Amino acid sequence: MNDPRALHSSVAHDGHDDRHYGAVHTPIYDTSLFTFPSVASMERAAADEGTYVYSRGNNPTVRALENKLAELEGGERARCFATGMGAISAAVLSSVRAGEHIVCVDQAYGPARELMGGYLRRLEIWTTFVDGRDLAAVEAAIRPETKLLYLESPTSLFFELQDLRRCASLARARGIRTIVDNTYATPCHQNPLAFGIDLVVHSLTKYAGGHSDAMGGVVVGSAAAVEALSRSELVLLGSVMLPQTAALIMRGLRTLPLRMERHQAGGMAVAAYLDSLPFVDRVHYPGLSSHPQLELAHAQMSGFGGLLSFEAGDDRERLVRFVDALDYFRIGFSWGGYESLASLQEGRAGSPRTRRQAVRLYVGLEEREDLIGDLANAFRAAGF
Ligand SMILES: Cc1ncc(COP(=O)(O)O)c(C=O)c1O
């Protein structure tokens, strides 16, 4: 949902719902099961996806969050999971069978890569990893048995993009399902379903929850595709979201567009500051005018968040000293909360691919001047 006015109204408004006595915030239905006055009514409920029987299948608090996320992403149906990886595993497993093949972007989130490139081999499902910026490479990797194109745009260390419209039409013409991990952009800044992508997955642990106090994931798409994985991977593997978590994430969503505006303003300021430093070799941030895919970024995203990275030489000890000297930026891997974070990471980037180390920064909600001052002090302390 890229229209900012629609976004603010959507997260703030649920409509009146008599089933919850008009409660403005959907109550936490802290119950594992629902009971019925008769066998006949229980049997009717069990056959109806819209009613509540057992909380591993359906729970009203979780359902309210699913409906809101489907609305924000422009999908017919959403299902929530215990974590982002729960959502990713379910979406991938529902898309492929033994003997079939996946094409996946080589910079996808590590555990998602490990699922496809490692774990699924024991089920005889094979994966080819490609540089997702190169549509010809994506096309060349497709085989007759390819059933899934797995994308993550932008990627979350070097912030490379895939052309989502062109990937969707390439895959659709060949009967291949597409999945996009949209965690970086959030529904505020990118809606892959509108480009013809089949399923969107998110780690709700990041921006959607927004307060570093809850883990969750979601799959959004057509009713048919999402209900199919809901009957199998969700219920059988059981990685379901708890109602308490759904309430926390719903609370986070209420301020998501507001927070994204501030993360973006901070991200832009920090990226521009880093870009101005003579000892910084490269800044990776899709909103920066020097980003090599800037045109594509503006064609498919309406904004950028607070996550970015930079490279500054290959002296690892000096980079470690820099990260250790930071004060506002706490040292940690995740992102999407209120607090700024830093980590030193390695990955393959460039063309041809080479192993590179980068400092990843997550710009939280603190004052920009404090954060830039913190970075300047740490650079000095580390001897840059
Ligand atoms: C881009 C991306 N996708 C998915 C995940 C997995 O989410 P979770 O940790 O909620 O399982 C992460 C977690 O860091 C992530 O960064």
Automatic annotation (TrEMBL):
Q: Which GO terms describe its molecular function?
A: transaminase activity
Give the cofactors, semicolon-separated.
Answer: pyridoxal 5'-phosphate
Could you list this entry's UniProt keywords, alphabetically sorted.
Aminotransferase, Pyridoxal phosphate, Transferase
Report whether Signal shows up as a keyword of the record: no
* Protein name per Swiss-Prot or TrEMBL: Aminotransferase class I/II-fold pyridoxal phosphate-dependent enzyme
Which organism is the protein's source? Paenibacillus glycinis
Which protein family is named in the record?
Belongs to the trans-sulfuration enzymes family.
